[in-house]
Amino acid sequence: MPQPDSIIAPAIILSEPQLGENIGAAARAMANFGLSDLRLVRPRDGWPNHKAESMAAGAADILAGVQIFATVEDAVAELHYVLATTARDRSMPKTIVTPGEGAARLKRALSEGKASAVLFGGERSGLTNHEIALADEIISIPTAGFSSLNLGQAVMLVAYEWFKAGDATPSETIDHGGGLPVPREELFRLFEHLEGELEKGGFLHPPGTRPGTIRNLRSLLHRARLSDQEVKTLRGVIVALTKGKKRDAMPESEEK
Amino acid sequence: MPQPDSIIAPAIILSEPQLGENIGAAARAMANFGLSDLRLVRPRDGWPNHKAESMAAGAADILAGVQIFATVEDAVAELHYVLATTARDRSMPKTIVTPGEGAARLKRALSEGKASAVLFGGERSGLTNHEIALADEIISIPTAGFSSLNLGQAVMLVAYEWFKAGDATPSETIDHGGGLPVPREELFRLFEHLEGELEKGGFLHPPGTRPGTIRNLRSLLHRARLSDQEVKTLRGVIVALTKGKKRDAMPESEEK
Q1: Is the ipTM beyond the 0.85 threshold?
Q2: pTM across the whole model
Q3: Domains in chain A, ordered, with CATH?
């Protein structure tokens, strides 16, 4: 028997899903966020399901590997850690976690070798209390007053948080089109070029305003975190703007 | 002129959306996560759109308030801070943030009185480079290798992160069915009751194992963070299990 996928990532279990579209949307969400083990308990329209296939949009592998079970007990039988999702307050004495916290707990459980899953109820009424009692803890998705996430959307948010919990994408990056930001030296040459031309144009007079004006311009150019190419472009701009100017011309206006 | 919604929460701008279903799904996602200002630029099938209405599932107020624009420039004209969403690498020198970081920046911008929005492209090819250039920064949704979020899903993840950024839901809560967890005193009485009966049943012999056994049982019962009602139930269980037992009976087995 091969090592079950639920050892490396949580399985997604849908209990009595009604619409093939939602099963397909769940599979698609799973593929986007690195999950692959999909289990269905008594899907209303049987299995396979053509509507699920047309909605899965490229996540066909996941649908091909779907396991069908007669009960939630069967679907979770070999698992060690199960989270149930529910929107309503169930007045059941279980720990309720956010999707983000649930993802962190799944990561921890899996790192300890615990086969894990997240359990979702059907479209009409969600999980029964009996099914929820089979889980260790509950994930509840916080929403504003109006709460009507459908099954596919709920699976997507849980899968998204799972992926985020293991994702190393920095919260901020700057795309310089493959290039590096400019070395400071080039930036300093740009400053000198610009300030030299501004001096000639009378923009840095009277002298009392000069330090503040230069500081503001340099600050702005630093903030833009320019690329090599952009510095070249800006130097070209300065050349183009000053081309043909008489050396000793005064600006028409001294607007700053 | 009333204060625009974009001052208290970001507007969502869809540029050239094609499918009414996705516009409706976007509105539904917005309602779930506390957004209301939806703007459409050149919706392919005109406006209003019946498919959008049937998909919006209760988010009719948002559709009723939709504003239509001829260009993205018009849609963002009065805004101060705009994030564009894109899945592909555009090789454009802009800051790229995760949805979570984008939500934090939107919160900050709005707290400074900056009217804000998140801009999404159409289903087929997303935003044009010209449209992206109109934004301050880019949100990119990290996914596993397979990336095929649709427009409604992309809006949902951004709206979800926006809601999370202002949501005070604790990451873990325990639902005791409205009641409080049991006061320690009651827990101690349960311990005494149980341990007294176990003593009679010979479970705590030989005396050398007694402290360890008691510690393990107490630890287990603490960990369960029992409610008042559950303590009562467990005390009833002890009574039921010991009922009719002869006072001096020894257990059939001493398994521990």
Answers
A1: no
A2: 0.81
A3: 4-164 (3.40.1280.10), 184-254 (1.10.8)
